[in-house]
Known about the structure:
Elements: E1 8-12, E2 18-23, E3 26-37, E4 48-55, H1 70-83, E5 95-97, E6 101-113, H2 118-132, E7 134-135, E8 138-141, E9 144-147, E10 156-157, E11 165-172, E12 177-180, H3 184-189, E13 192-198, E14 204-210, H4 217-251, H5 257-260, H6 281-291, E15 302-303, E16 311-312, H7 324-334, H8 339-350, H9 352-358, E17 365-369, E18 374-378, H10 393-410
Parallel strand pairs: 4-6
Antiparallel strand pairs: 1-2, 2-3, 3-6, 5-6, 7-10, 8-9, 11-12, 11-13, 13-14, 15-16, 17-18
Helix pairs in contact: 1-2
Keywords: Cytoplasm, Exosome, Nucleus, RNA-binding, rRNA processing
Domain Exoribonuclease phosphorolytic: 5-136, 162-226
GO molecular function, one term: mRNA 3'-UTR AU-rich region binding
Amino acid sequence: QGYDYRNVGISFGADYGCCIVELGKTRVLGQVSCELVPPKPNRAAEGVLFFNLELSPMAAPAFEPGRQSELLVKLNRLIERCLRNSKCIDTESLCVIAGEKVWQIRVDLHLLNHDGNIIDAASIAGIVALCHFRRPDVSVQGEEVTVYTPEERDPVPLSIHHMPICVSFAFFQEGTYLLVDPSEREERVMDGLLVIAMNKHREICTIQSSGGIMLLKEQVLRCSKITAVKVAEITELIQKALENDQKVRKEGGKFGFAESIPNQKITAFKMERAAVDTNNVEEQAEDIITKADPPSEVFTKPILHTPGTAQIGEGIENAWGDLEDSEREETVEEEGESDATAFECQKMEMEDTSIMNETEKDEPIVLSDSEEEEVVILEPQEAPKKTRTQTNLKQENTSKKTFNKKRKKKR
Length: 411
């Protein structure tokens, strides 16, 4: 029974409304943006909220780009139910001119790495990005709307009533075992999943069970109690992260993703400046020169294998043209010879010198496999080559005799 969450990490970008949430190895990037749009006809005095979660192939190879999978549709619905239908954001405060202009707040969530429990990480990233976001200040004079830049007036935070957070429970062996925050491997083997979205006031915003598992009333109540504890912990962490970010921004300190990367690593964007002592450089240089061994007199000369190339030291030579052996093997295979006959031919090549002594030098030795009617002629003057010709009956008789001699020798 695992009631513990993996480590939760929250880091903010340089702009307002940008954050990355890490849940173990699962990483979700949240980005909030806004624009002035006409309102929906049935909600003339309310702003518009839009949520969009994307699963890119960068997160896991199974995700396909531009394709709405069943999982993605399910996750998007859950996010909307958790963050929009729970009325956690005051949409009426987003109205500029009723029936004409309202703010549309768009929350984009990108899954950067998938290691299980996407919904929890996405719900945390969504609410954190909304809490961190600041919209431009607006003033209305008659029908004239003025949008101020951040330099002219400080941007305004959104009015957020409460912070709903999803907590996922995986069930194993028909509900016997319960696990909070399943990883990717655990999700593959689980029987069912229960997702509860709750805020720190213990108000359930949404609840969803999937996987076709029958749950008892006691199990659901037990899960809701665990959710209340986990949500309280995560809410406290979010508030601390937001306070810390605000404090750093006010003090004019360093913030953003680039600053959160440890500087002392080779892969970091920059290193701290190291002070170099330049007082006794000449003396130190002289000491090093006197102590050092004299230079060797032998210098390596470049080797010219072919015109237009140079090489120092013995490396690997260009093997572009050395494909004769492999080509020979390919021709043998194309001609339909079996591995056994090719092997016999190789043996015959090896014993070529012993046959040379017995037979006349000018006369080629003709060997034939009587089944396949193939002849391999081995010429002693040149490198042995395999050729193929059709045989006559007379040739067959003579070649059979030589082949029988050969077999006796082998035995």
